[in-house]
Amino acid sequence: xxxxxxxxxxxxxxxxxxxxxxxxxxxxxxxxxxxxxxxxxxxxxxxxxxxxxxxxxxxxxxxxxxxxxxxxxxxxxxxxxxxxxxxxxxxxxxxxxxxxxxxxxxxxxxxxxxxxxxxxxxxxxxxxxxxxxxxxxxxxxxxxxxxxxxxxxxxxxxxxxxxxxxxxxxxxxxxxxxxxxxxxxxxxxxxxxxxxxxxxxxxxxxxxxxxxxxxxxxxxxxxxxxxxxxxxxxxxxxxxxxxxxxxxxxxxxxxxxxxxxxxxxxxxxx
Length: 270
Ligand SMILES: O=C(O)CCC(=O)C(=O)O
Description:
Shape: globular
Oligomer: single chain
Bound molecules: 2-oxoglutaric acid
Number of helices: 5
C-alpha cells in the first residue's frame, strides 16, 4: 500500500471502518456541519442542488479525537508514511445533494489541496471518507502520479471557468483544463462504500464526485502530516486565508510543521 501511495499519490482502502467507527465519523461530520459558520461556502446556489464545504481544525473536539484515536485512520496513514510521528492538520467536509427533481450536484472542479496551504512534504495524506455510497459514475477522480508533477494555482470553485484561480496574483501556473481533455490524463477512480478510505497526497490532482438529482453525498476529509513537512514560501493563498492556518503561517520558512503545535495522533499524545 505504501509504495502504491508513493507512486500513484492515491490509494483505495476498502472496508477499513466498522459500523462503530462510522458512527464516530458521522458525529465528526455533523459537528463540523453544525459549527461551519465562518468557515463554510455554498457553491453554485443557482443550480438548486446542494454543494457546500467547510474547513477547520477541530482536533480539540472529543468526537474528532475519538476518530483519530480509536479508528484505524491514523494507523493506516502511519503505515503509508513508514517512519516518524503523524500529526493532524485540519479537516474539510463536503455536503452534496441533488434537488430531488431534475438537478444533481455538479462535479467538484479539478484542484490540488496543497496549493491552498503554506507547507509541503512527501508525508502528507488526505483521508477522504464518505458516509453515503458513491457509485462509479459519481466517483471522486484522481490523476495518477500527479503529486510528483507541477503544483498549479488554486481553483476558485463556484465560478464559470473551473480552472480560474482563487487568488488572481498567483505565482503558480494556471490549472490545466483536465475535464476538456480527459484522454490526455491518467484518471483513476473507485466506487466507494461507507467504511472505505480514499487516501491521497494533497498535491494529487482530483475532482469529480457529482451526485445525481436523487443522490446525496456527505464526505469528511482529515488531513494528516509527517516529519518531512515544512513551511514553504511558495504558496498561492495569502496569509489571511482561513484563520485556523494562522499557526502554520507564523512558522519561519523551512520550519517543520510539527513546531506549530498540532495534535500528534501517532503515537497518540492527546
Ligand atoms: O468531496 C468532494 O467532492 C471533493 C473532496 C475534495 O476535493 C477534497 O477533500 O479536497
